[in-house]
Amino acid sequence: MKRILVIEDNHDIRENLSEILELANYKVEQAENGKQGVEIALQQKPDLVVCDIMMPILDGYGVLLMLQKNPATANIPFIFLTAKSERSEVRKGMEMGADDYIIKPFDGTDVINAIDGRLRKAASLREEIAPGINGMDRLITLNGGKDHLDLLKENRSQNQYKKKQIIYTEGNLPSKLFYLQKGKVKTYKRNHDGKELIIGLYNQGDFFGYLPLLEGRNYRESAEALEDTVLAVIPRAEFEQLMGSNPQVMKKFISVLAKNLIEREEHLLATAYNSLRKKVADTLVTLYEKYNPQQQQTFEIDLTRENLAAIAGVAKESMIRMLGEFKDERLISITDSIIHIEQIDKLRHMHN
Q1: Which of 87, 101, 219, 286 counts the most CB atoms within 10 A of its CB?
Q2: What is the pTM of this model?
Q3: Rounded to 5 degrees, what angle do the CA atoms 132, 133, 134 make?
Q4: Count of H helices and E strands in the chain?
Q5: Main-chain dihedrals φ then ψ at residue 67, nearest 5 degrees
């Protein structure tokens, strides 16, 4: 049972609101002033706070400020109660971080809908968000309670790239976010000798190029189309507005980035320390899982040996030799330079 804290100095309003919430199967705690409300919130850690603005001892703004300063209560959803005559004061509360407001005199249905909506949103923000399009879709849906992703992609200019065409180059200043509508893209770095290391692979439905936008720096890698590709282009200003409009969404987005960085670190460690056989197996399994999400048995890898070697972090000659060994072991077959995965489970065993 969810616990709601009601902070209201008017006895009749407080009792009326508490009765409505109890009928809706919420457990209710009451406080008759702001100071008492803060004390109860710190002790009880309610799931949501409903708080009047104009109160003696400590007003609603003070309550919100004190709860936000404490890590234990900072993320509790907060709804202001306000009279119609105080409506102009609501903007101040929303700018301070309040989630919603309820106008007095209130309707019971409106109160329940507001509280239910805020509790659902709070629960959603605690969900584990996946990287890629699904995670971004979920994040943008949470921002404002509606799906902004289609709006973000609608009526965008589309850039078409041929296979091996450069999308952006290391050192350039980013001005847009890319959404991959069709095709495959790699991001990579080259050392002074020209040796390439692929550090990112993107498929249809992925966003990419967002990290330098968030950090406000130039690209640290280059991007190239692995096959004929269509990209939707989202201007930098719109992306920044989306990310800046909801701090909780921004925090969750940062957690997605952290996951991606962890995966990249693991890949670099594998590149540095794994055996040649395991590096090649890792590469084939990674491509299988990245570009074959339905896990279809008949899966083909149509990448040059140079690209495969750059993903694995090995020499092209070593990649060719190991692919030959895997072919002899019937783990893969090769037709016209296209690799067919035959025994993914055995490759996964080497991968793990």
Answers
A1: 101
A2: 0.54
A3: 95
A4: 14, 16
A5: -70, -35
Residue 211's CB: how many other CB atoms inside 10 A? 17
Residue 166, beta-bridge partner list: 224
Residue with tokens 């234990």: 72
Strands 222-225 and 166-168 turn out to be antiparallel
For 30: left if phi > 0, alpha if psi spans -120 to 50, otherwise beta; the answer is beta
For 2, 135, 138, the CA distances from 127, given in Å and listed in that order, are: 18, 10, 10
Contacts of 101 (CB under 8 A, 6+ apart): 79, 80, 81, 82, 90, 93, 94
Q: How far apart are CA 258 and CA 188, in angstroms?
A: 19
Count Cβ atoms below 10 Å from residue 287 Cβ, excluding itself: 20
State how far the Cα of 82 lies from the Cα of 261, in Å rounded to an integer: 44
Cβ-based neighbours of 184, under 8 Å, separated by 6 or more: 201, 202, 203, 204, 225, 226, 227, 229, 291
Tens-digit pLDDT profile for residues 306-344: 999 988 888 899 999 999 999 999 999 999 889 999 989
Identity of the residue numbered 132 = G
Which token pair is 9? 């100095």
**pLDDT tens track for 11-32:** 999 999 999 999 999 999 999 9
